[in-house]
Amino acid sequence: MARKENADTTANPGRLKQIALTYKMTRKADSKVGLVVAAVGIVTFGVFLALGFWIDHPIYLGILGFLLAFLAMAIVFGRRAERAAFGQMEGQPGAAAAVLQNIGRGWTTTPAVAMNKSQDVVHRAVGKAGIVLVAEGNPNRVKSLLAAEKKKMARIVVDVPVHDVMVGDGEGQVPLKKLRTTLLKLPRVLAGPQVTAANDRLRAMGDLMSNMPLPKGPMPKGMRMPRGGKAR
Question: In 3D, which of 192, 194, 169 has the Cα closest to residue 179?
Fold first, then answer.
């Protein structure tokens, strides 16, 4: 019991610190986030409290209003924080990979499976919808890179559908903030074992990062090996 209490005590400051950091980050991009969240909480609580006085149950409705006000504040804050995060990532190299790595359970993401000298890049996500190749970069250059990678996927996993998505705000492109939703809306056509088999075949093929030659000698301090990489 004592261990559990100590763990909860240690975890709570961590959560509070994370919320504080998220608020600071959001406030840089959205200066009104504090006022909006507070207004939502006050209005929600006020409506329920007024309703409680009207039906002669102010205590019950006040407690319910407090809980719902807290929930509403959390939802509004979460959405504005997410919007601010996407706004800061927009146009940054690797932004699509960051979104894909947080898409949720059931998906396996491999960043930078293909890249050219201009740093246009293609990422790969595998899930029950099949293989999704996500490209970010100059639309004119990245099309050929995406087409070549899609053709290679079709040869290696012939029984798995391969989708392609180009991130951007132009015609036929998917905005960064809608990338996760777009992938989750794809029809699920594979069972769990099929997804595992597809991942195994792709892992055996390797990718750009795992095929990069590693420098000889000790690894620099603070540097991490890319996923799938092996020391030689």
Answer: 169
